[in-house]
Amino acid sequence: MEHSQFMSLATPERRELLRLARTSIDSSLALGGSAGPAPYTAPSLPAELTARRSSFVTLRRGDELRGCCGTLDAPRPLAEDVWRNAWAAAFSDYRFGPLTAAEWPQISLHLSLLTQPELLDVTTEEQLLARLRPAVDGLILEGDSARATFLPAVWEQIPEPAQFVKQLKLKAGWPGGYWSSRVRAYRYATESFDEESG
Q1: Number of independent structural domains in the chain
Q2: What was the pLDDT predicted at 196?
Q3: What span, in angstroms and rounded, lies between the C-alpha atoms of 92 and 76?
Q4: Which sign, positive or negative, has the C-alpha torsion 146, 152, 153, 155?
Q5: Phi and psi, residue 154, nearest 5°
Q6: Range of 124's domain?
């Protein structure tokens, strides 16, 4: 499947998604934050934001990661997906404690919208490495009841393909040298933006 399956959003639609993400966290902080996401009420939105599409919401404090959560299976309309993933990134990322009201003014929001994952026809890790496009591809590895992904932005920290794949296997709970014929690899692209780029 071509990565161009989804058209890039125009600036007003991007800003609306960023507004929804921020409102989700604002509303949830007012309700006690980690108690659960504030109810999502679908506003009147353009079709691009009501189509089913996967998203990741990343929170940063300065240059430091403060939370990142998302979906891979396009389970709901994009606007609602961003709303729920914003809450999860703020309050449910197991790597961090729940976001506090005192921290919130220091946090910047970053959104990544995913294309439909493309199953790669590979049977060995060597074939996978040959197909990967550094700095372009997000990667999903799944098999044996495990599943993990790295967004394309992770290439900035892990630019070498073999290390990229190794670290993703470790994230999935496998040994770094693991490979099996049952492993399935998918790649996808992202449309990424933040409150500065809009």
Answers
A1: 2
A2: 84
A3: 19
A4: positive
A5: -65, -20
A6: 118-189
Q: Do 96 and 23 belong to one domain?
A: yes
**What angle, rounded to 10 degrees, do the helices at 11-30 and 78-91 form?**
40
Among 44, 6, 38, 8, CA closest to 24: 38
Using the structure block, give the residue that is written with the tokens 């990229």: 164
Q: Quick check: is 13 in a domain?
A: yes
Q: Does residue 14 contact residue 110 with C-beta atoms inside 8 Å?
A: no
Contact 71, 54 (CB under 8 A): yes
Q: Are residues 60 and 21 in the same domain?
A: yes
CA distances from 53 to 40, 76, 126, 180 (A): 17, 7, 31, 30
pLDDT of residue 32: 84
Residue 56 within a domain: yes
Please state the pTM of the whole predicted model.
Answer: 0.89
Please work out, in degrees rounded to the nearest 5, the angle formed at the alpha carbon of residue 106 by the alpha carbons of 100 and 61: 95
